[in-house]
Structure formats: structure tokens, C-alpha cells
Task: structure prediction
Amino acid sequence: MRRKNLVLLCTLASAVSLLATGCQSSAPTEEEIVLPKEEDESDAKEDAQSAESGQKAGGAIADQVQAPERFTWEGGSEQVSVKADALVVIPAGEGFQSYKVTGRVFNQEDYDRVSQVLIKGEKLWDRDMEAMGASNGWTIDEIEARIELYRKKKAEAEAMGEKPLVPGSETGQTYDDLIENWEALKENASKEVVTREVPAIVTYIEDVQDRAENYLTGWATVDGKNYFVSLDNNFRDDWRYANFNLYDDESNSNFSFGTSEQDIQSAEISVEEVRRKALEDAAAMGFSDMAIAGEEYLTSVSISEENDSNEAVVDAVGYGFHFTRTLDGIPVTYTHEVGGTLEGADDVPWPYEELSLVYTKDGFASFNWRNPYEVEKTSEEYVFLLPFSEIENVFQEMIVKKYEDFFSQADVKVDFEINEVRLGYMRVMEKGNTKEARMIPVWDFFGKETLRYPDMDEPYIMDWPYESWLTINALDGTIIDRGLGY
Result:
């Protein structure tokens, strides 16, 4: 395609007031929970039915947009077909207001409050490369394990009558070469890891030449388990991206969506228990302005040299919680779109703010906080929202046009099944302006996409819970590209 995505995550906070559900959980969101006050039984039942549709009975926002409980429609063209049978989710509240958004870097307070909760404030350490430089930081045991691996691979190659060449080597390197190199390292290696303390000091130097000065990385050991900490404060005019990761060494940080049923069953995770833990941890870290806006099973995978097929190996299966900002109780809608897609070579990426916590059956596994916002309310007035009937008309026309244009050069048929329509905030910027943006109300249409190519026996299906296939500005009905952010 003509665009390229420069930032992917997968990667992702409070005594929260809103709880949205993921694909594996049937718990209602707080938007969907309406507790009746001093009313008779029939009124309470009617309110409960309305709550199940995602709308608060009598809510000012619901009254303004006049949306149905479910949105149903079928249509399309020869190339693009659409079937919608979707729950309509409307936040409870008096209305949406105007906000200005700017980005910021992480500060010492951010690090300290996260550290105290997730790694109990333990000191950071790293391998002392000055003391272990002769072996490139490896210990004798680690080097011997690597040598044994290469001896095994050499023997396997010879048993199959093949030359013991290292796969992918452009210079014809053999396993004997690797073994010789590692044997040389072993001569000066230490038995134990030699460590040095890493000062847990968060820095930000604007326009710094050496980007390492805005990095903080190190390890922390808590109850015998090692955790890796990485805080990248290189938030610049040409790279609007700050990221704070903390994860346990066993699970790795590469959690991504798209988990198989087999992996879910093997994970043995109590969703209720880890959800409670996520809320407790988020509250303890002080994320009172953020709420769970999505949750799902996630898988951490890696490719190991020990795996002869070079296929990805599952390191861990976790359950993740995606937190987004709330504005007067109304959440920013979460989608899988990071917001790092660029149109031109001179464009600058500014991905969306997100905070994610992931837990396995053994407890906390991964924390990711990306691009924190500074948000300023610019008006106390509630903005005008188009009635849903107009949004519906825009959707019926533009869902077909968008994907006909997108796949105009491809011989493919596209089917959409829309199962949820959600109204919430989104950060929207002007093209070329990554210094500030606005929070505006938008409608998102979630569901499943099926691509059918003539030369493929089976269709390609994308059926993940937070894929928004069309985003419509609730103020004027224009289409917003979530990848681009405008």
C-alpha cells in the first residue's frame, strides 16, 4: 500500500470509574450498568434492558443522538459487502466537551510511582561490561550452554549428510567457527555475573545529540525474579514517541493479540482475579484519570536459536488490560490501531496514549505506558452531536467507498460483519501538526473482516475485538483515519 506503519505495539492504571469488556469476558461496562433509583419494578426492568444495549436511560448524550439499541443494515457492492447487527454503546453523561491535547515526556514521579508498585522500589542493576568485557558480558555457564547448542546442531546437520553451515550465514560460516569463537570467549569469562548499580534517574534533554542520555534501562530482582525496565524519553520534533516498559524476563515483553483457543485454555488464568489485580495496581500507581477500555488474551512469542524450524515459540499467555484516559467520566475509545501510520516521508509519527497491564497465572508480567498526554479543557459548553440517523447514512456510503478505494488494485472480495458501534472520545490532530491535537467525539464500527482472494483456498479472516473498520466524526460526519490520526 502507499502508506507504511512505522510504529506497532502491541504491546500497553487507576481506581477507575469505567470498565469495558474484552472478547473473552461478558462482564458489562460501567456504561452498561444503570442502577435504578426509587422507581417501581417495571421502571427498573425497562432501565436494565436499556442498560444492556449500552445506553443509559434518559442520559443526555443518548437523548441527543437518538440511536437505536441495535444497528442493523445490509448493503455493499460487488467487491465490498457489509452486514451490521451491532450493539450500540453510548456513554452515560451530560455531553462531550472540548479539550486540547499535547504530548509530554516521562518524569521522575512517573517512574517512582510505577517502580514502587510493580518492582517494589528495588534498585536497578545491569551487567558490568567493564568487568565482563573480555567475554562480552557472558558467564562461563552461559557460554558452555551456547557451545553445547552449536555442537548439537553440527551433529544434526552431519547426520543428515549436510554441511554444518550456519543457516542464513552469507559468509559460509560453520558451526565449528561459532564453537571456536565461543571457546575463545570462555577463556576470560567469569563464573558469576558481575553487576553494577544503575541509578534510577529519569532525564530529558531536549535536542540531545546522544539519544542514550534520554534512556533509562536496567534490571530489578524481586522475590528471585528478574524484571527488565526500559524508559525511552526521546520525544522530539521529528519523533513524537515516548515509551515506558517493565516486564518479567520469563514472559518477555512481546505480548500481542490473536491468541488461539488452545493457548487460552492452557493459560489457566482467572480473569476476575487478574482484573481485580489490574485495578488495584493501577490505583496504587495513581492512574485516577485512566480506565480500562479493553481487555483480552495476549500471547508473547519469540524465535529461539534452539528452534530448528525458526517458527515463533509461545513464551507466555497473558490477559491484558488496555487503559485509556477518561474525560469527565467518558473514555477515549480503545482500538488496536497504534496511530503511527504516515502518508509522506516527511511526516512525523505521534502514536496515541495508552497504558497496558498484562498478567499470567503467575501474576504481573508486563507494563507498557506510551505517549502520556497533557489535556486541557478549552470550553465548558457541550458540543453538538449529529443524530445517529445521519451517522448511519454516512456509514452506509463510506464503508463501501473506503474499502473499494483501498483494494482498488487488488482482485479481492471483502466482507464485513459489524457487531458493535461505540461512541467515545478520540485524539484527532491536523495533518502536519504533532505539537497539539483535540479530543473529539467519534463513532467507531467494530467487527470482523473477511478477505477472499481467487488464488487462495481459504479466506483471510481478521476477527479481533478492537478492530474499528470505520471511524466517523460525531460532530460533522466526516471520516477519520485512525492510522493517521486525522
